[in-house]
Specification:
Elements lengths: L1 E6 L1 H12 L5 H4 L4 H10 L1 E2 L12 E9 L9 E3 L4 H8 L2 E9 L5 E9 L8
Antiparallel strand pairs: 1-6, 2-3, 3-4, 3-5, 5-6
This protein binds zinc ion.
């Protein structure tokens, strides 16, 4: 089960507004790390909407998992969405970060984070 969800869509909207208003350059926000773009291509799931910047249907959601309560190391491990529940059952509670990345223009942004509890473990 999921808990402690944090939504980053307001921050995303504010950033996109800065781009539209010219306060931020496109190069500034189209700087996805090559590893993230690769993860988007190979294990990302299709986002329901097109890329907010280039409007192509190349937007992917990638899940990064950290074991326990959150990142202790700078980078988590990218996993396909369908593998998350099994990973939690095998390794215990996880912290998941969902990131969107456009495999065409390399726009990227954090969408949400949440705790994924291994089934049977206590909430809290
Ligand atoms: Zn794009």
């Amino acid at each position: 089960m999921r808990e402690a969800r944090t939504d980053y869509r307001l921050r995303r909207r504010a950033l996109l507004r800065e781009v539209t208003e010219g306060a931020r350059s496109l190069d500034d926000v189209r700087d996805a790390h090559p590893d993230l773009v690769r993860a988007g291509v190979h294990i990302g799931s299709d986002a329901p909407e097109p890329c907010p910047l280039c409007t192509r249907k190349a937007l992917k959601h990638v899940s990064y998992v950290f074991e326990g309560k959150g990142p202790r190391t700078p980078s988590g491990r990218a996993l396909p969405a369908e593998a998350l529940t099994r990973h939690a059952e095998r390794h215990g509670d996880l912290t998941v970060y969902t990131v969107e990345v456009c495999t065409a223009c390399h726009w990227h942004h954090l969408l949400e984070s949440y705790r994924l509890l291994a089934s049977g473990s206590a909430v809290g």
